[in-house]
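wait is this the right file?? whatever heres the structure
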């Protein structure tokens, strides 16, 4: 938390109707800031949303109740058009290509710390605060460090992996050095309406959805084959072959996903559209009777085929490296940016939220960046984000190709 000398500086808090942003607002007011609560309406459509998952009207009511309790001004802004253009349309486009986007990461980069920030500045904001479980350190030299949250179970720094130095320069994360139970306790002690409210789930600002139904707004259903690939398929590399590729630093081969033909396996069922499925998915296949659970190991949207394999550690789910295109490599710390030809650097990395950090080496080449992991990673998925850390600082990220 930044310790400001001028406590009259204005902080606009993104009040979401949840307990984290509510306590963030209380903390800031306690520290003497001029606090304004601003609620975003980002999505109106209920197609595909599951009942009982708190539509935005309920969120607004809770946010307003918290603002009244804290005696701070409450404002509302409708950003649904920008959200549709920048987040939802991108989602549809990525799924149509057979990729799996992360709308929460996009929402933070494109909405909360861009469009919302601009709205906050119109209200005279010096800072923008959210209830994210992460920390930001504003250094005297003008560098801004994005740090993991103190609560390892709730650390949300991954969702902010695409922020820039300019965006971080105005950011505050008041609950970032707290544990979730502490946040709940404060909300209860201060009689905030959100104290016992459940955390939101699903797509940022849309809620928990039946994904195929949601995507069918733009992507049509197409019946296709589910093909099972055996764990002993001849195309999989042996451990010695993998070790040889690592020794040779054959990064393109290590990062390339396995490709299958229908003849490589056997048909075990049908599906409603390959673009509705993602790597590592277990539920929604509608196929039973196997010794081990089936997981999606690949999708072919051109031929509309979903490939599956038995077991959580099926070889088709495991990979030692990933590739990021040059234009998709992002450095939160521009001063630490690796250039082509620089020596590889050791980082800890993750490819999904809540994944424990993994030991890896980052290589930057003419054709982009490669993350080579010390251990094979399960479910590396095109369209998702890989983020790399130096200690507890998130320094860079990129979209997995």
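ok assuming it is, sequence goes like this
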């Amino acid at each position: 938390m930044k310790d400001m000398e001028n406590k009259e500086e204005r902080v606009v808090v993104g009040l979401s109707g949840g307990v984290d942003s509510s306590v963030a607002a209380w903390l800031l007011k306690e520290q003497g800031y001029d606090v304004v609560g601003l609620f975003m309406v980002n999505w109106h459509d209920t197609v595909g949303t599951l009942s009982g998952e708190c539509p935005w009207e309920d969120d607004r009511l809770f946010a307003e109740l918290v603002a009244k309790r804290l005696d701070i001004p409450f404002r509302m802004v409708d950003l649904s058009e920008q959200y549709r253009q920048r987040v939802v349309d991108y989602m549809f486009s990525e799924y149509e290509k057979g990729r799996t986007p992360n709308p929460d990461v996009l929402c933070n980069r494109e909405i909360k710390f861009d469009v919302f920030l601009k709205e906050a500045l119109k209200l005279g904001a010096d800072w923008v605060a959210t209830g994210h479980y992460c920390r930001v350190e504003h250094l005297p030299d003008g560098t801004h460090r994005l740090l993991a949250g103190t609560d390892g179970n709730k650390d949300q720094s991954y969702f902010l992996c695409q922020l820039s130095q300019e965006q971080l320069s105005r950011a505050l994360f008041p609950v970032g050095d707290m544990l979730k139970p502490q946040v709940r306790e404060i909300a209860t002690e201060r009689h905030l309406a959100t104290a016992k409210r459940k955390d939101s789930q699903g797509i940022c600002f849309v809620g928990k959805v039946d994904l195929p139904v949601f995507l069918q707004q733009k992507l049509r259903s197409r019946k296709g084959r589910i093909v099972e690939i055996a764990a002993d398929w001849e195309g999989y590399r042996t451990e010695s072959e993998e070790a040889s590729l690592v020794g040779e630093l054959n990064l393109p081969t290590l990062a390339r996903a396995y490709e299958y033909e229908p003849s490589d396996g056997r048909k075990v069922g049908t599906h409603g559209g390959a673009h509705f499925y993602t790597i590592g998915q277990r539920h929604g296949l509608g196929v039973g009777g196997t010794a081990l659970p089936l997981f999606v190991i690949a999708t072919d949207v051109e031929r509309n085929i979903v490939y599956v394999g038995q077991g959580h550690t099926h070889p088709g789910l495991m990979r030692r490296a990933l590739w990021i295109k040059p234009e998709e490599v992002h450095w939160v710390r521009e001063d630490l940016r690796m250039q082509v030809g620089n020596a590889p650097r050791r980082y800890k990395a993750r490819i999904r939220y809540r994944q424990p950090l993994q030991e890896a080496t980052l290589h930057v080449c003419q054709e982009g960046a490669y993350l080579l992991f010390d251990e094979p990673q399960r479910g590396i998925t095109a369209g998702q984000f890989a983020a790399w850390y130096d200690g507890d600082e998130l320094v860079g990220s990129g979209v997995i190709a």
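Residues 1-6 have pLDDT under 50 and may be disordered. so i think its the right one actually
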